[in-house]
Predict the 3D structure of the following.
Amino acid sequence: MSSNDRMASFTYTGGPVAASPRTLAGLGQPIPYEYEPSFLNRFRDVERKVAEVFETDQDIVLMQGEAVLGLEAAAKGLCRPGMTALNLVSGIFGKWFGDWMRALGVEVIEIEVEWNEAIDPAEVQKALDDNPAIELVAVVQSETPSGTVNPMAEIGPMANKAGALTIVDAVSAFGGSPVRTSEWELDITVAGAQKCLGGPPGVALVSVSDRAWAALEANPDAPRSSYLSLLDWKASWIESGRTKFPYTVSVSDINGIDAALDELLEEGLEASFARHDRAARACRAGVRAMGLDLWAASDEVASHGVTAVTVPDGLDNQVVIEHVRSAYGVMLSDGEHADMKERVFRLGHMGPASRSLNPVVALTALGQGLADFGVSTDIGAAVEAAMKVLEEPVDATAGAAVS
Ligand SMILES: *Cc1c(COP(=O)(O)O)cnc(C)c1O
């Protein structure tokens, strides 16, 4: 068996992330018929738990495909040719969303910032004031490829006040930092299970407001009788009193996600947010102490889930990442997509990777990997700096929060 046939011992990526033993046990349960009462109850429970993490009483739709399915369903459901939308771009996923909307015939007004920065809410307010035709605002809460976050608490209410609906990509925020769907007045919010929840990729977790349902129903172009249809879920599942699925659901994924949600909610959302924040601060402290540059322009815009590190001049990050994987069994990420791919290393600290001393392992792997290519990195200083942060008493073991 070569090292290419084995999974790395440590996974610190932008997702999917390594699942916890409890989640793996959930995934390994027997595969039930989807209409067994016990599974129907579990599916409804998962919806309730997802709503708890979204901090909302909106309807939850669990679409059976990777999070991109939920994003595409939201775009196709709410967009109409000739409508005006505001797209906020601080990275790849925001850029893609604009392309989708333009392909659907939408007049897209775009605010784009450098991909190491966050959207400025004052600019959003100005665009809304200047363009009363805006019916839709699209934004990515956590731009995973760039390791940055946007100020949703300000952007959501602004859009709502201007009479616009919001589509929010909260895929990598969910479970690792607050997604206050109701308080922030968000309309369609999409998350994935394979990021901070530490679940399997394969289900899109979608929260839909009453206003968004009304807009979907009023849109003749919204997908119907389609895998991309949110309305099918409403007509079949919700309106049957949650007894009839529109199609067979991914039962094993739901079992795994249920276990991951139990683990998260037993620990408590705030404890999980604190754990992710602490891992992120430890990584940033370590990167600085090692003498490397953080990609994010400031700590305020840096992500809770991944720490992006600027690739030192003259170095090929692909070669370093492959070396770190094969020599040390540690899987790190690059910038993953298009323009970001070659520019950063990403140390992922989502889900189980935010626990314990994982940030120290990630920092050590990056530091040693770079040193092996002649970059001078002070690994000892990085470990010390990270440990200063990790000494803080957030319970990093599985289970209950420290009181
Ligand atoms: C992971 C992620 C998605 C889903 O995209 P994949 O590349 O298919 O995993 C969408 N948006 C954001 C912000 C993500 O982090």
